[in-house]
Amino acid sequence: MADASYNSPVDTIRLSELIGALSRALDLTEGQAFGHSLSSCLIGMQLAQAIGLDRESRSALFYALLLKDAGCSSNAAMVQEMFQTDDLAAKRDLKMMDWTQPLQAVRFGLSLAGRGRSAWTRLIRIIALAPGGMAPARQMFAVRCERGADIVRMMSFPETTAQAIRSLDEHWDGRGYPAGLTGEQIPLLARIAGLSQTVEIFRSTVGRMGAMAMVRRRSGSWFDPELVRVFSRLAAEDAFWSRLASDRPQLMAAVAALEPPEAPEMADSQRVDQVALAFAQIIDAKSPYTYRHSEGVAKYAVAIGRQLDFSPVQVREMHLAGLLHDIGKLGVPNMVLDKAGPLTHEEMEVIRRHPRYSEEILSEVAAFSSLAEVAAVHHERVDGKGYYRGVVLADFPQAHRTLPVADIYEALTADRPYRQAMSPDAALALLHKEAGSGVCPRAVTALEAALNKGEVA
Ligand SMILES: [Fe+2]
Ligand SMILES: [Fe+2]
């Protein structure tokens, strides 16, 4: 593979393509099927059309539906801590029950807390949760909603999009979270998004009839009865459901076709950077131990690239690759990610999947094809003993060999569940020891030069 083949046309991308692709990472964090956000978007936009929502509101809703789970990684560690179980599974199960009903909430807690442990351990866990009542749950929702709203603001989406996400879990009867808003106090876009996501969760889990029955049951409690009336009319038609059952490329195309402004919104390089930086924060928020990891990797990868006289296009790609290389980690449960002790073979296998997820997510953006490849090989080794493909990294272009060095250096110099941060000198010494077998010697020397010159710290 020659360096000359390396180019990166990431100057202008269709915004819906970029956000639609990255929404897959949010589905992973929520333990949902890969097309969850896209399908929720299709449901919501059909509702919006049926009620005659104006173009501007439809555009705001479109991105609210795709990014509704942007704050979800922020409470993953909290969910794991609260239930002492797989946060992905807990979040998936939580979505299937009516947690405003005390009996259902207790049953849920009992079934989940400390799953896989003895009945006694689970009971102790429930009692430990009880004194706070629903306060921890309220906090869990609040973190998710506020963080989600902040993240879409970072990406320059309108305030109406942020407000729709902020009020996503409010209920018509005032028993939702975080503010307990009632009826029309809840922004219309949030009411549509809340209904759409719940319909999609039930449709993909118990089917069309189960989803329709759930909506009827929760009309006037969770959902706006007027929206339920419109939904029921639409849901009687097969066409409403048939698009939702398609495969992922078809879903992407159907979502793109529903984008409201007739001229599709494009993301210039500045917007792409904003979106990448926002997603880096979503990725790093997943675990308290990866705080600012992606931004750090981007910083070191750019510094190495500059030392090695990369072109401006390549330097920019190092920046984006640093920000997004671990996007697949959103699919790793915190139980594994934050584990203090040694990992079992099965847990290692779960960790080893994340570069593949990163590759799958990023390769859905046509302009990100080389970026996806850089992310795919970020845990490969020069001698071919890395993961997930086990390819010989020495055969790859310099850019592919650069990111792993930046990634390892950042990880070594940050605190981890199983060890304290290493000093820069100790981290460099370790990288030099690995040079030639594990990592690329040129990239290590370039990193050391950049650190010595004070070009990066
Ligand atoms: Fe990684
Ligand atoms: Fe990483």
Structural commentary:
With about 450 residues, the protein is mainly α. It has 2 domains: about 190 residues, Hypothetical protein af1432 (Orthogonal Bundle); about 170 residues, Hypothetical protein af1432. It is about 60% helix and about 0% strand. Strands 1-2 form a two-stranded antiparallel sheet. α2 packs parallel to α13, α15 packs antiparallel against α16 and α16 crosses α21. The chain is elongated, with a radius of gyration of 23 Å. The structure holds fe (ii) ion (2 copies). One fe (ii) ion binds next to α15.
What bound compounds does this protein have? Answer: fe (ii) ion
Order of helices and strands: EHHHHHHHHHHHHHEHHHHHHHHHH
How far the N terminus sits from the C terminus, by CA atoms, comes to 32 Å
Q: Determine and state the CATH class of the largest domain.
A: Mainly Alpha
Number of domains: 2
Major sheet size, sense and barrel closure: 2 strands, antiparallel
- Principal-axes geometry comes out as elongated
Beta content: under 5%
In the predicted model, the low-confidence regions spanning at least 5 consecutive residues are 1-9
- Structural category is mainly alpha
Number of extended strands: 2
